[in-house]
Amino acid sequence: MALSLLLLSGAGLLMRSFLAERQVDIGISTGQLLTTQLSLPPKQYKTTESQARFLRDLLPRLQNLPGVMSAAGALTFPPSGGLPSDFDVAGLTHSERWKGDMVPCSWQFFETVRLRLLAGRLPTAADEDRKLKIAVINQTMLRSISAGRNRWDASSISKL
């Protein structure tokens, strides 16, 4: 009897935790969002450029499907992480190596997941055409790289 009560209580707490986690705001909207994973044949898509070309050709076709409001591509989907990367911010000096997770994505990604932008701007098609390297960072990373500085020059963000 005591074991049954213990298991029932544990199940109730687990369910409560699960429901609470579903309410956590991660900054994107997952309602009416469909994700899928593609594996491109490595022999046919050997280079990053050939993979990017595939995505550039695929997205307009997906966008034109009935009922599709927006289509985008990304290497992974938040909050599952990304590729570990060292980075620098133009104009900011530091003694330690800055590290973060990078998630390469199409410029449409942020619109598609309805990212809530707090400051700055999002990447655009023009950025992609000019092959600019644009970064969108979260508040945690901003606090980390601006620690000990009196002001933050937001123009440096586009130079990450």
Unreliable segments (pLDDT under 50, ≥5 consecutive)? 155-160
Secondary-structure content class: mainly alpha
For the largest beta-sheet, the strand count, sense and barrel status come to: 2 strands, antiparallel
Shape field: extended
Q: What is the CA-based Rg, rounded?
A: 20 Å
Biggest sheet, spatial arrangement of strands: 1-2
Distance between the termini: 60 Å
Our count of domains comes out at 1
What sequence of helices (H) and strands (E) makes up the elements? HHEEHHH
The fraction of residues in strands falls at 5-15%
Helix count, DSSP H or I runs of 4 or more residues? 5
Percent helix, as a range, is 25-40%
> What is the β-strand count?
2
Describe this structure in words.
By secondary structure, the protein is mostly helical. The radius of gyration is 20 Å and the shape is extended. The chain contains five helices and two strands. The chain has one domain. The longest helix is centred in the first third of the chain and has 21 residues, at 2-22. It has a two-stranded antiparallel ribbon.
Outline of the structure:
By secondary structure, the protein is mostly helical. The chain is 34% helix and 6% strand.
Q: Keywords, please?
A:
mainly alpha, two-stranded antiparallel ribbon, about 160 residues, extended, 2 strands, 5 helices, disordered C terminus
Task: Compile the SSE list and pairings.
Elements (H helix, E strand, L loop, with lengths): L1 H21 L25 H16 L19 E5 L10 E5 L6 H4 L12 H5 L9 H8 L14
Antiparallel strand pairs: 1-2
